[in-house]
Amino acid sequence: MGVLVTGAAGFIGMHVCERLIARGEQVIGIDNLNDYYSVQLKKDRLAKLAGDAFTFEKVDFSDHAALDKALDGKAFDRIVHLGAQAGVRHSLTHPRDYITANLMGHLNMMEIARHQDIDHLVYASSSSVYGGNEDFPFSVDDRVDHPVSLYAATKKSDELMSEAYSHLYRTPMTGLRFFTVYGPWGRPDMAMWIFTKAILAGEPIPVFNHGNMRRDFTYVDDIVTGVIATLDHPPADDGETKAGGSSKPHAVYNIGNNQSEGLGHMIDVLEDALGMKAERDLQPMQPGDVMATAADISAIQNDLGFEPSTPIAVGIPKFVDWYRDYHGL
Fold it and tell me: Could you list the pLDDT tens digit for every one of the 329 residues in the chain?
């Protein structure tokens, strides 16, 4: 019938819409086009999606009345809920934005799924839910009760609300814990973009915790492959234990590159791709941040056959090429 994608003007959302359209789906995209970062970048992403297979509605999904009005008469049987207020550091200064978008917004999307008897609601969680977890790599079977940022707490809350709704209404839902996504059309508040912009301008780059950090950098094409595979396989209401531990029609998966990289090595690869050296401004750890992330992706590998295929040595140059082209450099 069709797929509703929230956050369609966002980084991952745009790529998911492209992939769905390419395989012949009718896609309804919604986004409120807020100014958390460049609205023009969001509009440029939407321009790439324009065509008969894509319908866009500008709406804030945390406003249930406006959401219902925007979706009235539109046909869809699956939802990919990627819209959210992102960013760990922004949550320190704008906490109410996260409650509104990530809690009320998620509730509203679950209500849409419930009342329209949606086949599957796939939603974005985050690797941030693991907080200061010391067990590596991070597994969906680990307890995640100790978030170190409000952003992480809202994403964990989304998972708990989804568990409740899948129990009460038997709506199939799957949460995806994304690990440090990067690539073309990425977000300006992410390290890859910040570093690239600064290096090209001859400015120092902020390297937190004096570079003693590791991340499971995941290329956006691999993320999208995992999202689509998940969408096509709603968890069964069969009483069996799903990834993440639920016996309801609710699963939780990690989507990462299965390779945790040192921040210094990431910067080395970025320097090579840019053909320029970075001036590294070593700074202390930032509030709400974690030293390292690493994804155990065995659950999504075993259940859906997901295999990431883009190492940073391939993905970072692709981002740099896009960045130069987008900015005319």
Answer: 899 999 999 999 999 999 999 999 999 999 999 999 999 999 999 999 999 999 999 999 999 999 999 999 999 999 999 999 988 888 889 999 999 999 999 999 999 999 999 999 999 999 999 987 878 899 999 999 999 999 999 999 999 999 999 999 999 999 999 999 999 999 999 999 999 999 999 999 999 888 888 999 999 999 999 999 999 999 999 999 999 999 999 999 999 998 889 999 999 999 999 999 999 998 898 887 788 888 999 999 999 999 999 999 999 999 999 999 999 99
Q: What share of the chain is helix, strand, coil (3-state, %, to 5)?
A: 45, 15, 40
CATH number listed for the domain at residues 3-181+219-256+295-309: 3.40.50.720
Q: Which active-site residues does the annotation give?
A: 151
DSSP string, 109-174: HHHHHHHTT-SEEEEEEEGGGGTT--SSSB-TTS-----SSHHHHHHHHHHHHHHHHHHHH---EE
- What's the DSSP call for residue 208? G
Residues contacting residue 56 through CB under 8 Å, at least 6 positions apart: 8, 28, 29, 30, 31, 46, 49
> Is pTM, for the whole model, over 0.90?
yes
Is the distance from CB of 254 to CB of 140 less than 8 angstroms? yes
Helix or strand or coil: residue 181?
A: strand
For the chain, the structural domain boundaries read 3-181+219-256+295-309
